[in-house]
Design a protein that fits this description.
Blueprint lengths: L3 E3 L10 E2 L10 H17 L7 E7 L2 E8 L2 H11 L6 E8 L11 H13 L8 E5 L2 E8 L2 H12 L6 E8 L8
Parallel strand pairs: 1-3, 4-5, 7-8
Antiparallel strand pairs: 2-5, 3-4, 6-7
C-alpha cells in the first residue's frame, strides 16, 4: 500500500511554480513542520492521491514534493494542494508511475533495525527513537539543529521498506538557552 507522508527532500528543481505574488517571509522550524503535516494530510484526503507515495518538505516557504504518483493529472493536483498559505513556491520533484506493493513486503522490525543502523552512523542522531508500523517510520527525540533533523529524516527516507516518515523530532538549540 502506498501512502502520503511528510519528509524532508532535496535535489534538483523540477516544475518550480510560484504560489502568489506576496514576498517570501521566513518561517520557523515549527511553522515548517506544521505546513508539512497540513499539506501531507490534505494530499492524503484527496481520493486520487491518498494511495500514492508523496513526501512533503517545507523549508523557507518552499514546499518540496518528492515521491511517485500514478498520473500527470495527479502530479498537477498534488502541486495545487501544496500551494497553501505560508508556501510561496512549490518544487515539484514527483515522478509519474505506480510504486507497486514492493515496500510492504519488508517486516516493520527489519525496517526499524535498518533505520537505526543509518542513524547510529551519525553521533548527533544516534539517540533518536525509531518506531515502525505498516512501513511508516516515526522518529522521536531532540536534535541540536535543523541540519541534524534533515539528516535524520533523509536517512530514514532512503531506507528500503519505508513508506513514509513521521517527524516527531524537536530542534533544541543549547546555545539559545544561555541568555
Amino acid at each position: 500500500m502506498k501512502s502520503v507522508g511528510s519528509m524532508i527532500g532535496g535535489g534538483m528543481l523540477f516544475g518550480l511554480s510560484l504560489a502568489g505574488s506576496a514576498p517570501a517571509q521566513a518561517t520557523s522550524s515549527a511553522q515548517e513542520a506544521k505546513l508539512e503535516k497540513q499539506i501531507a494530510a490534505d494530499l492524503q484526503k484527496d481520493p486520487n492521491l491518498g494511495n500514492n507515495h508523496v513526501d512533503v518538505s517545507v523549508y523557507r516557504d518552499v514546499a518540496t514534493l518528492t515521491g511517485t504518483v500514478d498520473t500527470k493529472a495527479e502530479r498537477t493536483k498534488a502541486e495545487q494542494i501544496a500551494r497553501t498559505d505560508g508556501v510561496t513556491t512549490v518544487d515539484d520533484q514527483l515522478g509519474v508511475g505506480s510504486m507497486g506493493p514492493a515496500a510492504a513486503a519488508i517486516p516493520d522490525g527489519t525496517v526499524t533495525v535498518q533505520v537505526r543502523k543509518q542513524l547510529t552512523t551519525d553521533a548527533a542522531l544516534k539517540h533518536i527513537s525509531v518506531a515502525t508500523m505498516d512501513g511508516v517510520v516515526t522518529l522521536k527525540g531532540r536534535v541540536s539543529s535543523d541540519q541534524a533533523r534533515i539528516r535524520a529524516l533523509d536517512a530514514a527516507r532512503r531506507t528500503t521498506g519505508v513508506a513514509r516518515v513521521e517527524d516527531d523530532l524537536q530542534v533544541v538549540n543549547p546555545a539559545a538557552k544561555r541568555w
